[in-house]
Amino acid sequence: MEIEQHPLEPFLPGNARLLMLGSFPPQKKRWSMEFYYPNWNNDMWRIVGLLFFNNKDYFVDKAAKTFCKEQLISFLQEKGIALFDTATAVRRLQDNASDKFLEVVQPTDIPALLHRLPQCKAIVTTGEKATETLCTQFSIEKPKVGDFTEFLFEDRPMRLYRMPSSSRAYPLALEKKAAAYRVMYQDLQML
Question: pTM for this one?
Fold first, then answer.
């Protein structure tokens, strides 16, 4: 089975206080843009639009069925939100985007990312596979969905937030997913 390498560079604004980690991007055929959470059927950018702008379509270009990448980048830089994934190489055990069928061949070196983000105080994982991969790397307990665990990274107090997956395959209404993310962004004084 083919091993896929991560197709994107980590997005690491120097002012990042939050590192958002998914598991791995979907197959390119599912992308609507060259950036994180590119699948048109993924609700991450709708959740963010709803929370920060009271408009789930704030980052959506409906006519082109894509997201507004430059607007997203500007927003993420302003808010201090970094993005990457917990795997840099995977095998897809089935021909789909489901985490259930992803085998992590090479986990991401999360400590190396954190060294590049000196102001980062929190990590958020956006799904089960991402949470498992990160917790294994740091030897920490998985928080419940919508909750957090505190841990130390080289004497730096950190929080790991575990949020519901933004994939529509995760059976929870957009507004309920947004409510969980709202608590995290408020805790971090970003909202």
Answer: 0.94
For residue 170, the one-letter residue type is Y
- On whether the CB atoms of residues 47 and 115 are closer than 8 A, the answer is no
Dihedral of CA 115/116/117/119: which sign? positive
Q: Which two three-digit tokens encode residue 44?
A: 């991450």
Q: What is residue 101's DSSP assignment?
A: G
Q: Give me the residue label for tokens 């529509």.
A: 168
- Which run of H or E residues covers position 69? helix 69-79
| Cβ partners under 8 Å of residue 80, min gap 6 | 13, 15, 16, 17, 18, 119, 190
The beta-strand segments (E) located in the chain are: 3-5, 18-22, 60-61, 66-67, 81-85, 87-92, 102-107, 122-125, 147-153, 156-162
Nearest Cα to Cα of residue 90 among 26, 1, 4:
4
| pLDDT tens per residue across span 18-76 | 999 999 998 899 999 999 999 999 999 999 999 999 999 999 999 999 999 999 999 99
Distance linking the first and last C-alpha atoms of the chain: 43
Sign for the CA dihedral angle at 111, 134, 67, 102 comes to positive
Closest Cα partner for 162 from 175, 147, 172? 147
